[in-house]
Each structure stands twice: as C-alpha cells, then as structure tokens.
Amino acid sequence: RVNVVLHALDPPPAGVPYIPGSTPPTWVMRVSQALDPADHTDLVPTDPTFKNKNGQRVIVTINGGGDSAGAGGGQNQISLSAGGTERTAALATNSVSFNQTLTAARTRCGGNFGMVIDYSGSINRAPNPSTTMDTVRTAITAMIDTFAGTPVKLELSKFGWLGAVLGGDATGSRYFDMLNETDVSDLKIYVNGGTTSTGVVTTKIDSVNDATNWEDGLYRMFRNTDGTIQARLPQKVIFFTDGIPSYDRLGGVAGQPGTSAAPAATQSADDTGLAQPTGGGYWQRSWNRANRIAREFGVQVDFIGVFAGADTAASSNWTDVNAGYHLQDWKKGYHDVWEKGYHWKYERNRNVILERASGMKYDKLVGTTWVQEPSSANYLLFNTNNDESDGWRVRTPSGSASSWSWSTSLLTQTQYQASNTTADITDGFRTSVNGSLSSTWDTVLQPEYDGSNTLSNSNDGWRATKVYSTPFDLWEGSTQSAYISGNAGWRTYRSYTSTFSAWEVTTEAEYIAGKTAGTDPTNGADGWTATKVYVPPYTSYDAMRTFSRTNREILGQLIDPSGLVDPIKDAGGNVINAEVANMYSSSNWADVKGALKAIALGQCGGTLTLQTRVNGAPAGDTFTYTNSLDNTKVDTSGAYRSGTFDFAIPSGGSVNPEIRQANVNTLIHYTPANWSCKAAGLTVTPTTVDVPGTPWDTIQINIPANAAVSCIQNVTWVP
Asked: Residue 164: what are its φ and ψ, rounded to 5°?
C-alpha cells in the first residue's frame, strides 16, 4: 500500500470530457494494476503475456505539473512490485515444490503493442525520395529486432489514402508474437517485402501517391474490417507520420483499392462547415474524426508520436468547432491605487482690509413684509448670516458701487462674513490689500477664504496651502515606491476601474451582473473574466474560429491532450526518459530509427527474457530461474513460455547477473543442451559455468540499459 498526497494539481485539460467520480484523472496519475489475487478463474489466460496472476510490476505515473522530470516537477514514475499469486492446477497434498518463496515479479516489458505507419505520397516527395522510405523501413525493422525475444505482441497498421493491417487475417487483425522467431521474421517480411513462412508473397511498405488518412489508420488499429472492435487491443500505440491529415473515412472506405468493404463512415455535427482546403493540405474535419477514435480508446491506450519531415517546422490553420464549455473561476479586475493624505491651510494677510460699498440698503422682516431699516448699525448688530433666514438682508445700491469705505469700527470680520455672499464685488462687499502684503498671515476657515479669494495666487491677500499632516481630509495620487518609503498619511486601495492589472476571485452572480453583455467571457477588458472549462455541463458553446497552429501541436493534441513530454538525451545521445516521453519530432529522417529504438527500449531496455525449449517447442514443465542481483525468480512452462527479469540500470550502464536454475532436482527427465542469446537481432554469447554434481549450467550475461536481451535454454527430454 502506498499513500501519496497531491495538491495544487492541474485541472482537466481543454477537450477532455470529465465527470467527477467517474473519469479517471489520467493527466495527473496513471496506475497499471495487477489482477486480483483472489480471482480464481482462468488459471491460464488466453494471452498470458498481457495479464497474469503472478506478481506483476505496477507503474504509477504522477504528473506534478512541472516542465521537466525529476526536480522539475513533471511526470515521474514509481515502480512497485505488486504481490501476486502463484497457482498450479492439481497440486498434490504432499507437494513441497513451492517451499521456496522467492519474489516473482512480472516486468514492464510485455503485452500488446501497435504501430500506425504513414506511407502517404508526401514521403515520396521528401528531400531524398529514393531513400526516405528505405530509412523508415530500416527504422521499423530495427524496432522489431529490439522487441524480438521479448513477451511483446506487435500489430502494424499502415495508412495512406486508406488503412490496412500488415498480415491481417480474415477479420483484418494480426498480432505478431515476438517470442516466436517465425513471427518476427514474417513481420519483417511484411515491412520489407518477400515471401513469408506460409508462402504469402508481400511487397514492401512503400510511399504511394496517396493522401494522409489518420482516421483510417487508427480505425484499422482498433477495429476489424467489419467495424467490430478487435479481440485484442494494444496497451501502447506508436503513431508515425510525416504530415498532417488531409483525408478521412467519409471520403475513402468501402470499395477503394486494397481494402475489403467497410461500414459507412457517419458524419458528425462537428464535421459540418469544415470543407477540404483547395489543393489538399490540412483538413480539420479529418483531424476531428481521427481524434474521436484516439479518445474512444485513449482510456486504456497510451499514444506515442513520431513526427518526421519538413512539416514538423510548419504550421496549419486550426479550427475550433463549437466546442461546449461551462464557466468557472470568475474574477473581478482592479488596479492598486496609492495616495498621500493632506489638508488645506487657509490664510489671510494682515494687510487685508474689509470694505463695503456706499449707499447699501438694509431691510428687516416685519411679519411677512420686508421694511427698509434706515440704520446700518441695527443691521450689523442683528444680522447673523448672509441669507435671509435671520430676518435681515442687505441690498447693493442701484448701478455699480463707486465708493467704498473700510474701518474696523464700521465693519468687523464677523459682520463682513455675515453679509458677504460672493468673492467678487457684486454683493457690495469686498476685501483689498492696504498697501502691500505683510509678512504675517492669519489662519482662517475655508468659508471665509472661499467668500473672499479672487485670484489663483496670493496677490489678493488670500492663500491656500497643502499641508501633509493630520487631519488627512484629502488625498492625492502617488506612486507605489513613494507609498513604500512613506510613513503616516499614506493609503492604498483597489480601484475597480480601468486599467485592470490584477484580478480577485468573485462570485458567479457578481460576474453575471457586472459582465458586459455579448463580450467574450475570457476577455477582461471590461473588468470581468472567467475560465472556459470544456467538460460537462455544457452551458455555452464557442463560435467557430480559425487560427494558426504548429503542426507539432496538431499532432500532439491527438497524442496526449494533457500535454507532451519530449525525449531527454544524455551525453551519449541515449534517451533517458523513454518511459514517459510521448513525442519524438525531427525534420531529419535519420532520427526515426533512433526514436523507434528509444520507444522500444523504454518498454524493454535493461531486461532479460528467458525461454526453455524442447526440440524448438516450449518445455511443458516449469523451469525456475533466479538472478544473482536481487534473487527474483521467473518461471517458464507450457502455459508461460517466457519469464523476464527487469533490472534497474542507469542510462548508459549495464549489469552482469548470474542466471541460475533453481529447481534442478525436480527436472529429472531433462538434460541441458545449450544456451542461445540475442539482442537487437544479433548473437550475444554468455559465459557458461558448470554446476558441480549436476549436468546444468549457470550463465552470466551482460545486460545493457539500452538493449533487450533474450536467451533460450534448449533442453532434451529423457524418458
């Protein structure tokens, strides 16, 4: 049992249907799981190298959301040995043959693999058309040789205008057994041309003047010619192409050369409005249809892309077709404001004099009637404000005021303020400077200043000054740096007006109320934004839009919508992350061979697969082998033809385990004949050491990280 706590994980990527509680979050973590040990059915599975009830390696792939493996926080794998159950039918009650309890661990190398091969006409138009397809065939052949002798079953589907399975049987499906030398040889003949072991004459895979039909190539990898799903499905699919799709099954299925009748391809609503470009080229409809097949089987299949040729550096017009989404992560825009506090200080110069015009008329309210008061003294005595609410008022003489009088005895500051209503002279009251300005200024209240100040400067004897001290009645804009270095009298706040430089989480209701109608929900120009999530429930749909996208991104979206992991090479040029790399892209055709080899070694590099044969056939009895490095064991028998050791070897390194036969005392009817070993189709010679007192041998063999080694022990039956 392993407990892993993850946080701050990526959400489902765009275009991935996701239902909480139902959809496995494969963009975060994938786990390959052994069969339930409590399951007692099918002691000998139909395909024992695909699933078995022995202990099985469990690989947990965790995506930490980073941009590279290891410390970069990207995809990393944890390899575990899952406890399985060894079962033998009709075991005698007094049997002691299972007293030995060495760990039995199945390896990551094994299972059903598929490769979809592009042989469209564009390969013939590559820089070296006479040799380019030779380069591709050589690369595929090298991959087959790498898998040879391992518990891998391999199906190849080729496509140009149409798709077809190499060596397909009556249903159209054919997996070649890499433990079987004849199957290995026949598969290479189907790739390179010749006559197979069954007398079938084949032509080599060669580029033809065909379109690029991704959909039919994938269709033939997963379905039979009649449209039914194949009985066996691959665990991994290597998708090789030199370009983007330009054709699909709506244009080519039944009745086309080289294929049997196939069910009609149906048109989806997503395909409408996506006409084929004039003169060929990238066709969005064709990509959509290929992608549906990839996603249909993508839950149980990992895709690896191999992209070669000039198109790797090109771009094409990508069309989003009415994708459904709902909104989440509603945000409200703002910008930060920094302000400095101040208050105004109002002052009057000491030489300012208060004046009133000659001939002013004064009234008092008697009942409801205004009556002129002949004495200004009574007015000045009883008037308290400059409106009529106190029952007193003053009127200017007819015409313009021509003479003015001033005296503190005639008009006090309080009386002046109670009568002055404007800053000009139209109300019959004014201030002026007696001579020149004094150096002394007296503080006054704002109403007095407002009622007398007439100039923007202080020449009229009045002035107002900003004072940056308490009380902070007013605020002026400042800068963040000044705010940081300042002390008291500064403030900052969020302003929800343009421009919007930052965002805060808000509610859906507030977003709906504030968002400008008809605008893109992700465009924050109006101060409101949300995230489109392309999973149910679908509350809105995108309008069709077209934009340029690199061809590598277009293929990558088919390979893994959650993101691509490029290969990382060490100083020797070896790919060191082949177990997680899923996109090999190069304009150099010579790199195809290295890519396919790296993919194969990502599955089987650093492994040793053993078989035991009698006269070329699997020995029916159980042969148990152990290795000296970790004392794990593997068995071979009539049911399980091979056993594979999986060694942890640093990239570029190797190990030299000693392989011992553990149950020699139970094999009294067998004698050893010889050992034969190979790697990548070439003979490897082990070191053989006699086991004293027995006819059996121990072998020691070098296992490099960049090779899959297979050995066969040939034995003789002794009655």
From this structure: -155, 150
**Cis peptide bond upstream of 499, omega within 30:** yes
Per residue in 544-575, is it b (16+ CB within 10 Å) or e — as a string?
Answer: eeeeebbbbebbbbbbbbbbbbebbeeeeebb
19-28, 89-98, 392-401, 658-667: least confident range: 89-98
- Which residue type occupies 123? I
Task: Report the share of the chain in percent with pLDDT over 70.
Answer: 80
Distances (CA, A) of 145 to 233, 304, 640, 686: 22, 19, 22, 19
Residue range 492-518, pLDDT digits in tens: 999 999 999 999 999 999 999 999 988
Query: What DSSP designation does 52 have?
Result: -
Between strands 236-241 and 302-308, the pairing is parallel
Q: Which two tokens stand for residue 56?
A: 């099985």
Amino acid at 505: V
Give the Cα separation of 575 and 23 in Å (integer).
32
Q: Which pair of tokens denotes residue 322?
A: 């009415």
Rounded Cα–Cα distance for residues 526 and 514 (Å): 9
Summarize pLDDT for 545-578 with one digit per residue, the tens: 788 999 999 999 999 988 899 999 988 888 989 9
Alpha carbons 213 and 158: distance in angstroms, whole number: 10
Instruction: Compute how many other C-beta atoms are within 10 angstroms of the C-beta atom of residue 587.
Output: 14
* Helices (H) then strands (E): counts for the chain: 12, 41
Rounded distance between C-alpha atoms, residue 58 and residue 77, angstroms: 10
> If we measure between CA atoms, which residue out of 281, 316, 334 comes closest to residue 553?
316
Residue 225 pLDDT: 82
Cα torsion 219, 223, 229, 230: sign: negative
pLDDT in tens, 237-284: 999 999 999 888 887 554 343 344 445 455 454 555 565 565 568 888
CA 446 to chain centre: 63
pLDDT of residue 7: 64
Under a CB-based contact definition with an 8 Å cutoff, are residues 248 and 215 in contact? yes
Q: Around Cβ 398, how many Cβ atoms within 10 Å?
A: 7
For the cut 90, the answer to whether the pLDDT of residue 544 exceeds it is no
Rounded CA gap, 439 and 449, in Å?
Answer: 18
Q: Is the pLDDT of residue 74 over 80?
A: no
Considering Cα of 587, then 593, then 594, then 600, what sign does the dihedral take? positive
35 DSSP assignment? P
